[in-house]
Amino acid sequence: MDRKDFIKTLALIPLGGYAMQLNSLKNITDTFEKTSRMPVLFLGHGSPMNAIEENDYTRKFKEIGKSLPKPKAILVVSAHWETNGTFVTAMEKPQTIHDFGGFPKALNEYQYPAPGSPELALQTKELIHGTEVGLDKEWGLDHGAWSVLCHLFPHADVPVFQLSLNYKKDAQWHYELAKELSALRDKGVLIVGSGNMVHNLRMINWQNPTQ
């Protein structure tokens, strides 16, 4: 079943209660073709300027992208989307968010027009039982997502959706949450974690950055 047929079928689901809709959704997504298990990536995205520069980091991102099988969709967990609760983006056309300041005009005008995947957002909501997952239609793709995806998949032709980090929960809680997402990997979904171990620019001494 392709994307258009899925959306048409989803529109025919009776509005007889949310649980019934989720059960119907599962019956549909169970028909998705099984694929070879997709990998999981964690990428330290570094400066947003990596999106428009050519350097060792971006060359490596491009090399990784060429080595991967083309996924049916990409789920990104970005360090730049922290929420009170857990959410997945569920819009058809996610905006390119320029969530930074003080960078050149070329970076602020950069667009990564990948489509979204409302159907996979719903499937992700259903997969997760450890917490309630909300469907977000406002966020889009922050620079933690598009600054690496633009090198991995430069044609922006793979649907992308994001999962937020719950700032009230610890690393172990998120680890358990991540295990619930593993079934997506067998449906052709590439999972990408994007961030850095240390990312507090306000603590940097710009006169002596090594301190």
Q: Outline the low-pLDDT stretches.
A: 2-22
What's the helix count?
7
Please write the string of helix (H) and strand (E) elements: HHEHEEHHEHEHE
CATH class of the largest domain, named: Alpha Beta
What's the story with the biggest beta sheet? Answer: 4 strands, parallel
Spatially, the strands of the biggest sheet line up as 1-6-2-5
Give the secondary structure arrangement, pairings included.
Elements: H1 3-11, H2 18-29, E1 40-44, H3 56-67, E2 73-83, E3 86-89, H4 105-108, H5 118-127, E4 133-136, H6 143-152, E5 160-166, H7 171-180, E6 189-195
Parallel strand pairs: 1-6, 2-5, 2-6, 3-4
Helix pairs in contact: 2-5, 3-6
Overall description:
The chain is an alpha/beta fold. The protein has two domains: 1-31; 35-196, Protocatechuate 4,5-dioxygenase, Chain B (3-Layer(aba) Sandwich), CATH 3.40.830. The chain has helices spanning 3-11, 18-29, 56-67, 105-108, 118-127, 143-152, 171-180, and strands at residues 40-44, 73-83, 86-89, 133-136, 160-166, 189-195. The strands form two sheets. A four-stranded parallel β-sheet has the order 1-6-2-5. The chain has a two-stranded parallel ribbon with strand order 3-4. The protein is globular, with a radius of gyration of 18 Å. It starts with a helix and ends in a 16-residue tail after the last strand.
